[in-house]
Amino acid sequence: MKQRLGRSSIKYDRDVYILNSASIVGKKEGEGPLGLLFDLVGDDDMFGCNTWEEAESSLQKDAVYLALEKAALKADDISIVFAGDLLGQSIATSFGISSYGIPLMGVYGACSTCGESLAAGSMSIAGEFADKVLCVTSSHFASAEKEFRFPLEYGNQRPLSASWTVTGSGAFILSGSIPADGRVRARISGITIGKVVDYGLKDSMNMGACMAPAAASTIEQHLIDFDSQPEDYDKIITGDLGSVGQTALFDLLKKKGIDISERHMDCGIEIFDANEQDTHSGGSGCGCSAVTLSAYILKQLEEGNWKKVLFAPTGALLSKTSFNEGMSVPGICHALVIESV
Amino acid sequence: MKQRLGRSSIKYDRDVYILNSASIVGKKEGEGPLGLLFDLVGDDDMFGCNTWEEAESSLQKDAVYLALEKAALKADDISIVFAGDLLGQSIATSFGISSYGIPLMGVYGACSTCGESLAAGSMSIAGEFADKVLCVTSSHFASAEKEFRFPLEYGNQRPLSASWTVTGSGAFILSGSIPADGRVRARISGITIGKVVDYGLKDSMNMGACMAPAAASTIEQHLIDFDSQPEDYDKIITGDLGSVGQTALFDLLKKKGIDISERHMDCGIEIFDANEQDTHSGGSGCGCSAVTLSAYILKQLEEGNWKKVLFAPTGALLSKTSFNEGMSVPGICHALVIESV
Q: Which single residue of A92, A317, B227, B263 could bond B94 by disulfide (Cβ 3.0 to 4.6 Å)?
C-alpha cells in the first residue's frame, strides 16, 4: 500500500497534473461575481436544445470539447472519462459524452460528484492505468428543480435556506506527464474519500445543513490522515454548503477543536451575489464546484496567489422518491489536495 | 503506463483476488434454476421493510454483512466500497451501506454497474491504493418497475421481449493479498472499459436489443486489446441480454467475424426458467449479474470446471425522463477477465 495514508486517504507517490480544463455556465452564473472568468456563458439556459435535460447534456459535451481544444488534444488521446451528474440514471452524462467514444466510468456522489470524478480520475493516473483521463460533471437549475423538488411552472416559494442549482459544467483533463510546452494548471497530490454521514435531517430545501456534517467529517479525517493543520492550506474550499451550511460546518468543526473560518471558501457562496441575484443560501449542484474550480480556483493557483488548497465538494444523497417516503438526506464529501506547479 | 493495454483495456501486473463474496435474492430468484446456490433467499420481496426502496437497501446491507462474515473481516478492514444501483440518485446504495462507515465511491453504469464496481475496485487494488475493497450492487423488481416503467398496481401487459428485473444483491471483497488460510475465490487479471453505444433503439421493453451493440463493441475491443480469441475463454458471460439480446449479440459479432455462440452464457437467461417462471426474455438488473457471479460463476472457477471467463455485464442507459422525452436507450458494457486460482 505504498500510496495509502490513514483510514480514508491516499497520498500519491506519482505526479498527477490538471493539464487543462474548461467551464461553461448559464446566463445567471454569467451575471454573477465570477461571470467574466468562465470560458463560455450561454445566452439562455436552453443552449439551443428542446429540453432542459438535453441542454444539460450539451453543457457536458461543450465543456469536454473546450477542454480538449485548450489542451490541443483529441478525444482519442483520452483513455477514460469519469463523469456524472444529478439527474436520475445520470442521463446528462450518457447523452452528453457518448459522441466522443471514450471509455466511460460513470460516478455518482450527488453534488460531490466533481470531487469524486477527480478522485477516481487521479487514482487512474497515479496507478499508471492511463496517461490522460477526463473528468466532467454538470448540473442545470431547471432539470434539477424538476428532478428533486417542484416543476418550475408551479412557482413555489423558496425558503431562505434553499440553494440555487448552478447551470454549468466543468471538464478537467488529468495527465501523468507535463507536455512539451511545460504548461499545466495544477497538481493533485492526494485525496480523502468520504463516507455517508447522516444526521437525520429531512429538509430538501436546506441542503447546506444536510451536507455540513459530511464536510466536517471529511475535513477532520483529512487533517488526521495527512497529519496537517488548517494553516497548511491557503484555502479550504467546500462545494455548495451555502451560507447556512457554512455556519453549521464552522460549528461542527469548532467542537472538534478545528477552526477553518479564516481560510474557508464555499463555491456556492462565491458564484452568486446572493442579495442581488436572489439565490438565498447560495449556489449548488455538481456544476457549482466544477466551474468554480476551473475558472477561479485553478486561476489563483496558476497565478501564485495560493500554493495549496483543500478542495472538498459536498453532496446531498436524496432522491424525489426517498424524500417523498420520509427518508433523511444523508451527505457525502470527497476532498482533494490541489497544489500549484 | 505499465498496466495499460490497447485502447480500452488494462492488464494488471499485480494480483487482484476476489477474496470472498455473498449473494442474497428474492423469492422468485430462489425458485429459479440457481435457487439452491444463493447464500440467502427472502421469504418475500419486502425483506421486513416498509417500501421497495428500503427493501433494496436492506439487500445491499445484508449482502455486505454476509460477505464480511464469510471473509472473517470487519467493516473497518475495508478501505473503499464501490457501490451502485439502478434507482434515481442511487438511493439503495446511500441508505444500504451508510451504517458501515466505509469510504464510498458511488458508481453508475445501469445494469453494468456490477462490472463497473469490480473494474474500479480492482484498479484501486492493482494501483496499490488499498489492500481490501468492497464492490456491491443491487436491483429489485418492484423498485425498478416503479422507477423505469409502470406502477405494479397498473398491471400492464409485458411484451415477450421484456426482461424481469432480478431482486438481489451481490457483494465482493477484493484483496491484493492471499490470506493465511490460502483461500480466495478467483482472480481478476484485467478489464476492458466500455463506451456508450447508441443504435437509436427506443424500446424500454426490449433492453436486450438496446444493450447488445454495447456488448458486441466491448467484447470485440477486449479481444483486440488482449490479442485473444473467444476460444481462450471457457465462457464469455454477459449480464442481462436475455434471449432476445443474445440473438442480436451473436448476429452483431458474426458480422465482425467473431463467433462466441459455443461459449456464451447470459446471467439473465440462467437465473430464471423463462417458460416456467413467466419471465419472458430473461432476468435483468445490476443484481442479476452480481448474484450469478457470486453464486454460480465463481463456484465453477473454484471447482476447476472453468479456468478463465470473460465477465461482461451490460447496462441500458435510460431514465423515465429520457424515455418520456423520446430519447434513445444507449447501452454500455464493462468486461473483466476472471481466472481460477
A: A317
Task: Name the residue in chain A with its Cα closest to that of B81.
Answer: A195
Chain A: closest CA distance from residue B28 (Å): 25
* ipTM for the assembly: 0.97
CB contact under 8 A, A322 and B3: no
3-state secondary structure A224-276: HHCCCCHHHCCEEEECCCHHHHHHHHHHHHHHCCCCCCCCEEEHHHHHCCHHH
Which residue do the cell numbers 473454484 mark? B302
Nearest residue, CB atoms, B193 vs list A80, A318, A327:
A80
C-alpha grid cell, residue B305: 470446471
Q: Does A228 touch chain B (CB under 8 A)?
A: no
Q: Alpha-carbon distance B53 to A325, whole Å? A: 9
**Shortest alpha-carbon distance between residue A199 and chain B (Å):** 11
Asked whether A78 and A175 are in contact (CB, 8 A), the reply is: no
Q: How far does B4 lie from chain A, in Å, by closest CA?
A: 5
Percent of chain A with pLDDT over 90: 93
Question: Which string of b and e fits A277-292 if b means at least 16 CB within 10 Å?
Answer: bebbbbbbbbbbbbbb
φ, ψ of residue B46 in degrees (nearest 5)? -90, -20
**Residue B138: phi, psi to the nearest 5?**
-150, 160
Answer whether A152 touches B (CB < 8 Å). Answer: no
Does A104 sit within 8 Å of B195, measured CB to CB? yes
A36 touching chain B per CB within 8 A = no
Which chain B residues are closer than 8 Å to A320 by Cβ?
Answer: 88
Residue B192 to residues A104, A105, B5, B310, B326, Cα–Cα distance (Å) = 11, 11, 9, 10, 30
> Residues near A168 by Cβ (< 8 Å), separated by ≥ 6?
A23, A24, A25, A26, A29, A38, A59, A138, A139, A285, A287, A288, A290, A291
Q: Can you tell me the mean pLDDT for B143-148?
A: 93
Tell me the chain B residues in contact with residue A126 when contact means C-beta distances shorter than 8 Å.
127, 129
Are B120 and B82 within 8 A, CB to CB?
yes
In one-letter notation, the amino acid at residue B318 is L
Percent of chain A past pLDDT 70, that is, above it, reads 99
Looking at residue B45, what is its pLDDT?
93
State the virtual CA torsion across A5, A8, A9, A10 in degrees, nearest 10. 80
Residues B167-173 have a mean pLDDT of 98
Q: Which run of H or of E encompasses A191?
A: strand A186-192
pLDDT at A1: 61
Average pLDDT over residues A288-305: 98
* Calpha distance A197→B261 (Å, rounded): 47
CB-CB neighbors (< 8 A) of B131 in chain A: 1, 4
Check CB contact under 8 Å for A332 and B104: yes
Q: How many residues does chain A have?
A: 341
pLDDT at residue number A2:
64
B2 pLDDT higher than 80: no
Largest CA distance in chain A: 55
> Any CB–CB contact under 8 A between B147 and chain A?
yes
Cross-chain Cβ contact B317/A194 below 8 Å = no
d(CA A55, CA A58): 5
Instruction: List the Cα angle B49/B53/B195 in 5-degree steps.
Output: 150
Contacts A327 to B, Cβ<8 Å: 91, 95
**Look-up of cell digits 477527480:** A118
Q: Do B319 and A89 touch (CB under 8 A)?
A: yes
In this complex, do B4 and A79 lie within 8 Å of one another by their Cβ atoms? yes
Cα separation, A79 vs A106, whole angstroms: 14
